[in-house]
Each structure stands twice: as C-alpha cells, then as structure tokens.
Write a structure and sequence with these properties.
single chain; alpha+beta; outer membrane lipoprotein receptor (LolB), chain A; 13-stranded antiparallel sheet; 13 strands
Length: 246
C-alpha cells in the first residue's frame, strides 16, 4: 500500500509539472507565436509630463527582434535590433549603430517603465525559468493560476523570480510581478483588452507600473497585430535599421 501511494504521489508531481510547463508554454506562445508583427503606441506617464511614442515591432522565434520608432519626429528612425544575445540601437541623427551590452538589458527603454529586455524579449519563461504552482483561484475556464517562476541554474537572468498570473481556459497572461534579489516587487505588468487571434489570446493593452513610484506608469497599446506570418530575413539586419522609418 505504501509503495502504491508513493507511486501515485510521484506520478502526480510529474503530471503537475508537465501541466505547468504546458500552460506556461501556451502563455508565452500567446504573446510571441512563431512570429509577431504589430504597431505599438507607448504612453509614458510621469507626474509632470506625458510622452507618446509610436513604433513598429517584428519578432521571430526566441532570437530575433526589431523595433522602429515612427513618431514623434525628433525620435523617428531610432531603432533596436536583437539577434540571439546581441542587441544594437541605431541613432539616425548621428548615423551611428550602438552595441548595447547585456549588463544594460534592465535599463529603461527610451525613458519608459519597460526595460530593453521587455521590449526585445530576450528572456523566455519557457527556456530560462522553472515553475511552481502557488495557488489557483476562481472556477472553470476563468480559474487563475499563480505560478512562481525562478531562474534555472547558471542562467544570466535578471530576476530572482517572476510571479505569473495565467487564466486556465486560454492561458492568457493577466499579470506579471517582477521580484528582485532583495525579494521586492520592482514592477508589475498587467494585461488588458484581450483579443483572440486564431488560437492565441493576446492583451492589446499592457500597463507597467513601479510600486515605489506612484503617479508613474507606461502603457502599450497594440494595433495591426499579425501572428505567424513570414517575415523577411532582412528585417533583422543592421541595414534594415538604417532605412527610413515609415
């Protein structure tokens, strides 16, 4: 009887781990797909000022990302390119390509509450983290899983852990809490205005806040979203970054 109980216990643990991995994989696929293209309106809110940036973004797999700013005029053409672990920024006013070191991946992107890593999606919950179910709340397809994601050993990731709130029915990511080595919640990302694109449920509005900086936030609104379409290889080159933004 003890052996039978032990067998069911071990099997149950492995089944839960596999289920967790699958829901995290689907949650990430909801945000990335095989490829992703879209337009972004970023609004940066500070107590004394508000800025708006409009840009286009292209992602392919886990290793390729390009962002080009379209508006405002003074920042038009500023662009980022990531290929695997390499990140560059193109500054059109001085016609200069700048290599951004990995040590700066957590730096704020263009003065927003999103980091370089957030924007070019260099880290992956599926690839870089292991997962533990903390609790479930609600019922049926609207049940929300709170999943604690901690870095796999020896991986150079930024966070001690990420708390991931995922809806069970469609694996929609409702919220992420980013937690530092000091065990402090450094920032909170909330997904809103979900839309369905094929088999993906995607938040067309994201809001990033810092609990220690009241009155500040950055929102991202997506439009013209396209998943899983073929993207030209040239899109992920430095030459493409130097072309005029349109």
């Amino acid at each position: 009887m003890k052996f039978l109980f032990f067998t069911f216990f071990i099997f149950g643990r492995y089944a839960m781990a596999a289920n967790l991995d699958e829901i995290v994989k689907k949650a990430e696929n909801n945000l990335r797909g095989k490829s992703f293209q879209g337009k972004i309106k970023m609004t940066i809110v500070r107590p004394d000022v508000e800025r708006v940036l409009v840009m286009k973004v292209w992602l392919e797999g886990l290793d390729l990302a390009t962002i080009k700013i379209l508006q405002p005029a003074k920042e038009k053409g500023v662009a980022n390119l990531r290929r695997q672990t390499d990140l560059w920024q193109y500054l059109p006013k001085v016609d200069r390509m700048v290599r951004i070191p990995s040590s700066m991946m957590l730096q704020n992107w263009m003065g927003s509450d999103f980091s370089n890593d957030d924007m070019v999606k260099s880290s992956s919950l599926v690839r870089d983290y292991k997962h533990k179910l903390v609790k479930k709340e609600g019922a049926g397809k609207n049940t929300v899983w709170l999943i604690e994601s901690t870095p796999k050993p020896s991986l150079p990731v930024a966070w001690k852990k990420i708390n991931l709130y995922v809806r069970e029915g469609d694996a929609a990511t409702l919220k992420r809490e980013f937690i530092s080595e000091k065990n402090e919640v450094v920032k909170i990302l909330v997904g809103k205005k979900f839309k369905t694109f094929g088999d993906k449920t995607f938040p067309t509005l994201l809001e990033m806040t810092n609990p220690k900086k009241p009155g500040t936030k950055t929102t991202i609104e997506y439009s013209d979203v396209v998943f899983d379409a073929q993207i030209s290889e040239e899109t992920f080159t430095q030459l493409f970054l130097k072309r005029a933004a349109d």
